[in-house]
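Reminder to self: tokens first, then the designed residues, so the page reads top to bottom the way the pipeline ran.
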């Protein structure tokens, strides 16, 4: 049995000599080990491997033991049956602890997050997973590389004369320097109703991208409406 695998049924049998492995004794040990099994599952299943639960829905009936993923990408478990409303949010309300228990800060598992990086194809996959987009409205990235040129002078149009045969490679003849290295496009449908403002939507994207972008690069966030 692996050090990182815990099964209450197996443990119960290992703790008892064969002569005592009756049905009642086994049931009693399983009851005692159930809380330990629950904690192990939250660590090995949720924290390590991740768990993408159904998003929290308003006016929905929740029972004890139901899991949801809040819009902040945290996972919660219901600890008191109720019908969801704004005063029973999993997070952000003073009464939330009466109904919900947070079991994971990030619904994406640690093993997957360890592979994340700033490569475009990988960062796009990360964005779509994080914002839980659908195939018809995906997040994507476009490159806008900086020009190999620079301006000198205080006024627009005041440029250094191209006096060298190589100067045209880096001296620009018009003001066309790119401001961003790349642009991140995220569909507006990727955001829940709690994040409705354009500024809050862009902030949510930047909070994620800033964790993985190459230091020194400058980017812009564009929120688009799928057709």
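Designed residues (227 positions):
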């Amino acid at each position: 049995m692996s050090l990182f695998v815990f099964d209450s049924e197996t443990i119960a049998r290992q703790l008892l000599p064969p002569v005592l492995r009756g049905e009642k004794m086994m049931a009693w040990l399983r009851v005692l080990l159930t809380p330990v099994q629950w904690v192990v599952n939250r660590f090995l299943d949720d924290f390590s491997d991740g768990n993408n639960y159904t998003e929290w829905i308003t006016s929905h009936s929740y029972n004890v033991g139901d899991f949801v993923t809040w819009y902040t990408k945290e996972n919660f478990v219901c600890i008191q049956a109720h019908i969801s409303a704004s005063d029973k949010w999993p997070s952000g309300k003073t009464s939330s602890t009466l109904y919900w228990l947070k079991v994971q800060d990030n619904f994406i598992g640690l093993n997957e997050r360890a592979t994340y990086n700033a490569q475009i194809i990988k960062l796009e996959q990360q964005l779509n997973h994080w914002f839980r987009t659908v195939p018809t409205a995906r997040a994507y990235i476009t490159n806008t590389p900086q020009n190999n040129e620079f301006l000198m002078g205080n006024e627009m149009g005041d440029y250094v004369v191209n006096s060298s045969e190589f100067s045209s490679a880096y001296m620009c003849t018009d003001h066309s320097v790119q401001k961003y290295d790349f642009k991140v496009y995220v569909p507006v449908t990727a955001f829940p109703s709690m994040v409705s403002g354009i500024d809050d939507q862009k902030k949510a994207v930047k909070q994620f991208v800033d964790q993985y972008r190459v230091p020194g690069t400058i980017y812009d966030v564009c929120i688009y409406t799928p057709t």
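Residues 61-110 form one domain.
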